[in-house]
Design goal:
By secondary structure, this protein is mainly α. It contains eight helices and no strands. The longest helix has 23 residues, at 123-145.
């Protein structure tokens, strides 16, 4: 009988994956999948390894989330409540609005620290990021205010019944 060594699986943040891939890339040449993975993590990683893990710990502390959900949130860094709610709903987690706001505030704090401490981010890039964030927030508010097609139809049906 062949024995198997079971290794403990530990969820990793994107920043931790990036570090591992960079170490391995120095040792050997990457295949296609590994190279594409490294390109992907380089493109989307916003926090360094330490800040990313610190955010995961804070999220677990603030909202009593499990590590997998905390890592998903730390990797995606949602800026708005609807995006956060999508992540939470996937894991069937319900939090009150206060906890959601605390999570979003914590994410913003970490992003601000990363953005303003990074020497790679220029003033122009920071302004563009802030404009994009404001644009998304405004679109989100407009969507909340606009009635859906179903609710508009119900209102029209009510009006026609009232006229009769």
């Amino acid at each position: 009988m062949v024995g198997r060594i079971e290794k403990e699986l530990t969820p990793l943040t994107i920043a931790e994956v990036k570090e591992i891939l960079e170490k391995r890339s120095a040792e050997a040449e990457f295949g296609y999948e590994q190279q594409k993975t490294l390109e992907y993590v380089n493109k989307i990683q916003k926090l360094n390894k330490e800040k990313s893990r610190e955010l995961v710990n804070r999220l677990m502390e603030i909202a009593n989330l499990d590590i997998q959900t905390s890592i998903k949130i730390a990797d995606t860094l949602p800026m708005f409540k609807p995006t956060l709610e999508v992540i939470l709903s996937k894991d069937k987690i319900e939090l009150d609005d206060e906890k959601k706001e605390q999570i979003l505030a914590e994410i913003k704090k970490f992003l601000d620290q990363a953005m303003y401490s990074s020497s790679q981010t220029t003033k122009k890039e920071k302004e563009e990021i802030e404009k994009e964030e404001n644009k998304i927030a405004q679109e989100s508010e407009k969507e909340k205010k606009q009635p859906t097609a179903a609710s508009s139809k119900k209102e029209k049906d009510k009006e026609s019944k009232n006229k009769k």
